[in-house]
Every structure is written in structure tokens, then in C-alpha cells.
Amino acid sequence: MRSxxxxxxxxxxxxxxxxxxxxxxxxxxxxxxxxAHASKERLYAHFGDKETLxxxxxxxxxxxxxxxxxxxxxxxxxxxxxxxxxxxxxxxHLRMITWARLEGFTLDEPQADGAxxxxxxxxxxxxxxxxxxxxxxxxxxxxxxxxxxxxxxWAHLPxxxxxxxxxxxxxxxxxxxxxxxxxxxxxxxxGNNR
Length: 194
What we know:
Radius of gyration: 20 Å
Shape: elongated
Order of helices and strands: HHHHHHEEHHH
Strand order of the largest sheet: 1-2
Distance between the termini: 61 Å
Structural class: mainly alpha
Number of helices: 9
Largest sheet: 2 strands, antiparallel
CATH topology of the largest domain: Tetracycline Repressor, domain 2
Helix content: 55-70%
Number of domains: 2
């Protein structure tokens, strides 16, 4: 017999798959319950309603996403590679964020280990600028947005060729993303401005 924690984890895993595929409006509690081998009554007893369950999955996915990537001042381009890898490995995280936005959910500032991710990332960019690894002309917040855009570019490309399991293609795309990030953060010289 499953413990309460095991049941809760199985419900969250089933809900993650359902919500990532169908969003809040299209998801069905009966499919989630069936996938978790639980009754709808047990599911409602743990989470109350479908929106509460969606929010819990969304918060957990956001926390997992941002715990999985961290920016080191001496390796800013590698941060983009890590984002690319995560988007390939766990596309449901991005789908959950997209569904939350479509549903009109307010996206709270992500946390990692109890601290705001944005503040940690800004501090890392500023340290990279101070150490000469990143062009100091960049506003740190704007640069973070650009770096995420590079790392997530393939995940958002509206083309059937965007999704692949071919290791050589994935490696080539990752290399291109890291190289693009390296060029973006490099010090600019006169006559070579953004």
C-alpha cells in the first residue's frame, strides 16, 4: 500500500503529464486519477480542485527548472547551454509555463533554494562584468532575457524540425547556442557595436 507521500507524488507526476499536454482547461481529473491509480475523491482530498493542482505542479516545475540551471560568472555562455539542455530534457517545464501564461496566471518570481533566482542571476552577471568575462555595456536584466532567448530558441521554433532525438543534431544546436552566447557577451570594440 502506498504512503500518503507516495500517492501525492504519483498524483503530481500524472497531473504534470496531463497539464503539460492539455493545459488547465483541457486537462481532465479522471485521466489524472486513472494515471495515478487513485480515485478522484482521493485526488480532491489532497488538492481541493483542478486549479490548485495545476498551480502546485506549475510552482514545482518552475522551482525544478531554476534549480537545474545556474549562472556562474566565469561561464556565462555555458549557462545558455544548460538552458538548452534542460529545454530538450524536460520540455514539459516550458509547456507548463506557456499554459500558465495562456490561462492568465501570474508568474511569481522563481525561487531556487529559498532565494529569488533573478537577484542571484543579476549578481552573477555583474560579477562576470566586473571580472571582464562579460561586456559591461549590457544591462544585466536585458542580458539575462537575451541569454534565455538563445537557450530556448529551438524549443520555441515553429517548425517540425525543431524536435529531434538525434544526438549529433542536439550537440550541434547546443554548440551553436553556446557560441552565440559567447559572441553576445564578448566585449565590444569601437566600430563593432550592438
